[in-house]
Amino acid sequence: MFLLRFVTILALACGLSLARAEPLVLLTENLPPFNMSVAGTNYARDDGVTGISSDILRAVCERAQVQCQQILRFPWQRVYQQTLDDAGYGLFSTARTAEREGLFKWVGPIARNEWVLFSKGDSSIQLNSLDDARRYRIGGYRGDAKTQFLLDRGLEVQTALRDSENVKKLERGQIDLWVTSNQAGRFVARQEGLDNLKVVQNLHTADLYLALNLQTPDELVQKLQSALDSLRAEGALRSIEARY
C-alpha cells in the first residue's frame, strides 16, 4: 500500500513538473513598432519577432524565469480567439478595454498607443470634434479596438483585413480618414510609400497589455507583473523603447 501511494504521489509530482515545463505561448500580430516580423511576413516565431512590446516581454519572461514562446500570426481575430479559448496562451499588444476586461487576465502596461484619425497630408479636412467625422468615409482594421471605438460611438467604418489596405485606400481617395495608431500607422504607411499623413483628430491614448487566458494561474500572472514592474523601475523599458 505504501509503495502504491509513493508511486501515485511521484506520478502526480512528475505530471505537475511537466505541466510547469510547458512554455507560455505569446501570440501577436504585425503592429509596428510594438510587435512585428523581422522578415516582414505574416508568420514568425521567437527571434523572428521583434518590436518594443516583443523585446519587453522577452525581458519580463527572462526576469520571471518563465519559458515563453512568441508566435506572430495573421489575422488578429485568429490569435485573439485562440487566446480566449486555449489555456497556456497570451496575446500582445492588447488594448485593455471595458469590453475585454473580464475576458482575460492582464499583465502591464507594457507600452502606450495613441489612437488617431489620419488624413492625407494635403487634405483640407479639419475636425472640431469627433462628430464632424461622420460626414467622411473612414477606414479601419477589422476586429481592432480603435475601429470598435468609433463603431461604439455610432460612426460608420469600412473595415479591411489588413491595415495596409487602408493606406492604399487613403492614397487612392477611396476613404477620407483612417483610424489607426499614430506610431504604427506611420510605420505601415512608410512601408507602403506614403509619408505625408496628417493627424486630424486625437481619439484616445491606450495602454497596451499582455492578455492571458483566464485559466492562467494567478501566481504566474503575478510573477510576470512583478518582473515587469521591477524592469520599469530600473529604467530597462525606456532603454528598449529608445531602440525603436
Automatic annotation (TrEMBL):
Residues 1-21 form the signal peptide. Coiled coil: none annotated. Keywords: Signal. It holds the Pfam family SBP_bac_3. InterPro entries: Solute-binding_3/MltF_N (IPR001638). Residues 41-244 form the Solute-binding protein family 3/N-terminal domain. PANTHER family: PERIPLASMIC SUBSTRATE BINDING PROTEIN FAMILY 3, SOLUTE-BINDING PROTEIN FAMILY 3_N-TERMINAL DOMAIN-CONTAINING PROTEIN. This is ABC transporter substrate-binding protein.
